[in-house]
Amino acid sequence: MTDIKGRTAFITGGANGIGLGIARSFARAGAKLALTDIDSAALARAKEELQGITQVETFMLDVRDRDAFEATADAAERALGPVTLLFNNAGVAAVSAIMNLNYELWDWALGINLYGVINGLQTFMKRMMMNGQGGHIVNTASGAGLVAVGNGVLYTTSKFAVVGLSEELSISEELKAFGISTSVLCPARVATDIVKRSVEATPKTESSLRDEIKKKIEESVEAAGKALHELGLSIDVVGDMVLKGVQENATFIITDDLIEPAIKARSEAILKSIPK
What would the pLDDT profile of 35-66 be if each residue is shown by its tens digit? Predict the structure, then answer.
């Protein structure tokens, strides 16, 4: 899709991190913006920053709330016109020791990372098909949606699901008939505060871990957050990558080559397991 100018982009998690980077890039390309987030202060900052470039509307939205999603979609389209660029981007870096897993943690992680995407698709796909203007969908997964690299079962499960969902949509003849394409964004290291914000948002549950093991996990999570800031790409670089991916109708938008060796090893293991 090369005709970005004048289209309406709906971005979940659009006031922070990668979502904000996407918003900046698409604003410069001429898209109108509907930004949603659960961080009201960040929404206000994003609107103040971007409203001088394009028309911006902001909405508080928990992507797990289906009724609120539908109501927000209605409000966004009343203000900005039909949404033809959908970015299901909101997510959490869900981390938990296996011994501490419980249904509350599963529901929280999958509710945001997977069902947040599903809710966005269910809210907008039919609208996009019926408005006759074509469109593009970008679902944010992760490098951890392509290969298991020790990010934990909550995160990896949710992101593998988003990759599979997105790949299936990308080959859908039904969507193609309506001029709608799909990409999946698989970032690796990006300089955001997602680790810190996710730790703060994680449901508090009773720990069964010994103190020394708990400390090691906490130190590992802290190191991961620090590495993102020190080694990660800027959100603006990633935003431009997403813009290019949409313009080129790319199925995969991968931000760097960090996971290439792991993907090769996984692919080789799968191929070797096929009976000859």
Answer: 999 999 999 999 999 999 999 999 999 999 99
Active-site residue set: 155
Give Dmax (Cα) for the chain: 61
Given pLDDT bands bounded at 50, 70 and 90, which one contains residue 86?
A: very high
Q: How confident is the model at residue 210 (pLDDT cuts 50, 70, 90)?
A: very low
